[in-house]
Specification:
alpha+beta, DNA-binding
Length: 301
DNA sequence: AAGATTGTTGCTTA
DNA sequence: TTAAGCAACAATCT
């Protein structure tokens, strides 16, 4: 599931690859999906346009277009992928060591899951650039979306997001004020995009394990010390996850079709029934805040 | 074969 | 007015 570190990785990679390239053609592979949001009018906005910058708000990617005063939004939701394929020139590729590339095809080396090849049966949209490179939007479960908006609508959407966890504005004072007069679980707070941007189910569990706080703890029971620690750990875990290019659990791959390397550091997510790395306890799983939640009963209070 | 999977929205209830 | 919780969404896997 792409969360903040995964979306950040895709954003940074794509910035190096598609900025200021001319979009010459859009191919909608999944016409039945009005969800894709790109129809006749959208095609004319995108065609012959250029992406001049890419930003991120929480898990949402924001592509700034040079012309027509529009922004292209892409949300990957659970299974969305953005795969960039350079111009398929076999000679060039060989020289640069793209060993997995098959001449004339688009197969990427050693990638797993549905990211193995593009286009594939889950490809919803293809951007063709003037240098013959392509960007594929794949989405197995069709939860993701692509949308064109004006500046006004974009501002409204961004306003709906809470502070970026890595930003200075996400600090003890802020979190304390958010928790005041609330009685829900800390996990529900971490997952609430209006309060904090970008954290999803995997990192929420990993953060709370590292902070040694049980996910179902009511927030009005948290001490100042615990709140301070949660703020610190949120930044720590996300920073490390970005450094390791995100986590691949099922479908996530980066724009080159490669897995994220933070998976090796997962302490509780997906480890139900296994031994806790921190004590002799066992990792438990139960539904908290409406989501499958992993924690160690002994380490986390 | 029903239930779980998850990011987000929208609805209902308190 | 706002918070909290849950269903719904899609498609696949167990």
């Amino acid at each position: 599931m792409p969360e903040l570190p995964e979306v950040e990785t895709i954003k940074n990679d794509l910035k190096r690859k598609i900025l200021n390239k001319k979009i010459v053609r859009i191919v909608l592979k999944d016409k039945k999906q009005a969800r894709a949001g790109i129809t006749g009018a959208g095609f004319s906005v995108l065609k012959n346009n250029y992406i001049t910058n890419i930003n991120r708000a929480g898990k949402l990617l924001i592509f700034k277009l040079r012309n027509k005063n529009k922004y292209l939004l892409i949300h990957l939701k659970m299974t969305g992928q953005l795969i960039y394929i350079p111009h398929p020139n076999p000679l060039l590729r060989k020289e640069r060591g793209y060993k997995g590339m098959i001449a004339g095809g688009h197969k990427l080396s050693d990638s797993t899951g549905v990211g193995g090849e593009s286009p594939n049966k889950y490809t919803r949209l293809i951007f063709n650039f003037s240098d013959k490179s392509k960007l594929f939007f794949n989405d197995l479960r069709k939860f993701g979306y692509v949308k064109l908006v004006g500046l006004k609508e974009l501002d409204k959407i961004i306003e709906g997001y809470g502070p970026e966890p890595m930003d200075k504005s996400f600090n003890f004072i802020y979190l304390k004020s958010v928790l005041k007069n609330r009685r829900t679980s800390i996990k529900a707070i971490l997952l609430n995009q209006k309060l904090i941007s970008g954290i999803g189910n995997i990192y929420a569990d990993e953060i709370l394990f590292r902070a040694r706080v049980k996910p179902d703890r009511r927030v009005n029971s948290l001490s100042d010390k615990e709140i301070t620690n949660i703020v610190k750990v949120v930044k720590l875990i996300l920073e490390k996850a970005i450094k390791y290019r995100g986590t691949t659990f099922s479908d996530y791959v980066d724009s080159r079709g490669k897995r994220g390397n933070f998976s090796q550091f997962l302490q509780v997510y997906g480890r139900t029934g296994e031994k806790c790395f921190g004590c002799q306890g066992v990792v438990k799983k139960e539904k908290i805040a409406g989501r499958g939640t992993h924690y160690c009963e002994r380490c986390q209070k």
